[in-house]
Amino acid sequence: MTKKVVLVVEYDGSEYKGWQAQKLGIPSVQESLEKALAVVANHPVRVVCAGRTDSGVHASAQVVHFETDAERNERAWTLGVNTYLPSDIRVVAARDVADDFHARFSALSRRYRYVIYQSSICPAILSNGVTWSYRALDVQAMKEAASVFLGTHDFSSFRAIGCQANTPIRTILNFDVQQVGQYIILDVRANAFLHHMIRNFAGVLMSIGAGEKPIVWAKKTLDAKDRTKGGITAPPTGLYFVGVEYPEHFNVPFCKLGPHFLPYIEESSYDVPS
Q1: How far is residue 203's CA from residue 208's CA, in Å, rounded to a whole number?
Q2: Whether 34 and 100 share a structural domain
Q3: In this structure, what CATH number is given to the domain that contains residue 207?
Q4: Over 139-186, what HEC string results?
Q5: Global confidence as pTM
Q6: Given 88, 106, 124, which residue is the final one in a domain?
Q7: pLDDT score of 223 more than 90
Q8: Catalytic residues
Q9: Counted domains in the chain
Q10: CATH number of the domain that 83 lies in?
């Protein structure tokens, strides 16, 4: 009997051309995961993810589902599958899930964290896991600027030119900017995101934090509804897909907030739009 399984997957995206399977010979996270699952399931497997990540972007809690007629326990779908995965991809949780669950369409919200490392010297450790800023950034100015993004807006100024979304309207449920030691963390939750949206947020906020632009520039950029007014797109290295929210009855595994080199930070309260 065919059943549906949900997985939570962690990966370092540095060596991959994004999540989505590519042409033959181009490495992707999806292809690597599907090959490993096929070995354990003993049949071809096609996975569906909660949100596709770009080249060089990481995830601490990507959620995927797949269908299988193989009878395997959770240990097989985690430790067993990990045996056949490269060291930069890991299944961290697995569970049987209801037939009407869909990793993408059942999601209520998605959460990303963008990690900036402040130092006069570019780091050797985690060089592909953070975005380096040699300039001191004003976190309070960045926090104040980020507050204008909360709520439902036309985010045309923050979408990639090639973004294929049907509408630029998105709802930002939470946008925190916090400093932990030399790390500055942009923590963003929304109902959905546009292509390059977080990285474009980061580009604007880093310019404000560095004093290149005033705080009001964030709102001016938002109101312009024009990508050419939006400043640079920050690098992918500091971006992490860290969580997806689903209706409780699906009982999707919950994993500790990542990436794991950062301490846990309590998220501000928010309301999911109906």
Answers
A1: 9
A2: yes
A3: 3.30.70.660
A4: HHHHHHHHHHHCEEEECHHHCCCCCCCCCCEEEEEEEEEEEECCEEEE
A5: 0.94
A6: 106
A7: yes
A8: 54
A9: 2
A10: 3.30.70.580
Q: Is there a single domain that holds both residue 61 and residue 92?
A: yes
Residue 150 lies in a domain: yes
- Encode the chain in three state secondary structure: CCEEEEEEEEECHHHCCCCCCCCCCCCCHHHHHHHHHHHHHCCCCCCEECCCCCCCCEEEEEEEEEEECCCCCHHHHHHHHHCCCCCCEEEEEEEEECCCCCCCCCCCEEEEEEEEEECCCCCCCCCCCCEEECCCCCHHHHHHHHHHHCEEEECHHHCCCCCCCCCCEEEEEEEEEEEECCEEEEEEEECCCCCCHHHHHHHHHHHHHCCCCCCCHHHHHHHHCCHHHCCCCCCHHHEEEEEEECCHHHCCCCCCCCCCCCCCCCCCCCCCCC
For tokens 């007629």, what's the residue?
A: 69
Confidence of residue 13 (pLDDT cuts 50, 70, 90): very high
Residues 59 and 125 in one domain: no
59 lies in which domain range?
3-106
- The span from the CA of 190 to the CA of 172, in Å, is 4
The answer on pLDDT for 274 being more than 70 is no
Question: How many residues are recorded in the chain?
Answer: 274
Do residues 98 and 116 both lie within one domain?
Answer: no
